[in-house]
Amino acid sequence: MATKLYRVRSTKSDGTEIIWIGFRNVPPVRYAKAIKGLSADLDATERQRQSVDELFTYEEAEQWLDYLERHYDDLHSKIVEVALPLAPDAEALSYTSGDRRLLKPNKAGYPFPPHFEVYGYEVQQS
Question: What is the pTM of this model?
Answer without folding.
Answer: 0.89
